[in-house]
Amino acid sequence: MSERTDRTTTGGGRELTAGIVVLSTAVALISIAVGALLVVAAVAGHAAGPWASPSALSPGLLGAAMLGTAPALLTVGRAGTWEEVRTLVWPLAVVLVGLFTVSLVNGGELRVATGGPILVVMFSLGWVATLALLALGAVVCLALQYRMPAPARGPAERTAPLPGWTKPPLALLGAGWFGIGAGLLAAPGFWGALVPWQVSRADAQGLGVWALALGVGVLGSLAEDDLARIRPALLAVPVVSLVVAVLLAVRGGDVDWSSGAALCLIGLVAGLFATGVSGRLLWLRHRAAAAAA
């Protein structure tokens, strides 16, 4: 049974607009290029981010999150309904609007303001300009998506509900990421001091944006309660966790592994990987059962 066949048998659902597909594809392609740059620079020990960072790890982790979500974003065009991708698109909007806001709020820390090598300064300027366009595009695309008329067949049916045993861990994982993200954004001075490596205010808030987006995605998947609807998100979270884990291992010397925050980070990253892998296995088992029936 193909993925497209699975989609057409769910019944109902709001039609996915072309704007969401174009936005997701554009962000994926940009994320591959920018994410790879930030990760490679971090591995080499260089903080190549848009603002001045005391450690190469922070901009590297931003790049790891970009790289990890790109493959999932490229699958948005294969979805048949909005319900199948909103657990990925809403976190995407959080990231775009959040990072643009953080860049503006911490404008004094941007490389274009502090100066430096011309390539780094141009990258910082391009970062802000690109985020401005993408954040505006995300807001417009979401507004147009919700202007789409309600489906005549009614809302999309839930064909593969989450097993009951998966919901408490999902709630805990989502709340953990959401809480950390909210704390880093609202009080970067306090919560940033708990990060187990050196961070600036902009680093803390930038990482907070991604943590908040991960929390929104995980909690959104819990609310959707349907494996068929959260397939793109299930592709994103294990890839993000793997890239982050590799970067943490390579730059392990920057991390205070004896701190409680480091242990919490390990647990949250491992939780993302376990969620993606177990979710995918459950989905494959569901498809096999449906085919047999």
Give a description of the structure:
- With 293 residues, the chain is mainly α.
- The protein has 11 helices and no strands.
- It has helices spanning 3-8, 18-43, 57-73, 86-105, 111-114, 118-147, 167-186, 188-192, 201-224, 231-250, 260-292.
- Helix 4 (86-105) packs antiparallel against helix 9 and helix 7 (167-186) packs antiparallel against helix 9.
Tell me the number of strands.
Answer: 0
Which structural class do the helices and strands define? mainly alpha
Radius of gyration: 19 Å
User: Which range does the strand content fall in?
Assistant: under 5%
Overall pLDDT: 91
Q: Which stretches of 5+ consecutive residues score pLDDT under 50? A: 1-10
- Overall, the morphology is globular
Major sheet characteristics:
none
> Span from first to last CA?
12 Å
The arrangement of helices and strands along the chain is: HHHHHHHHHHH
Helix share of residues? 55-70%
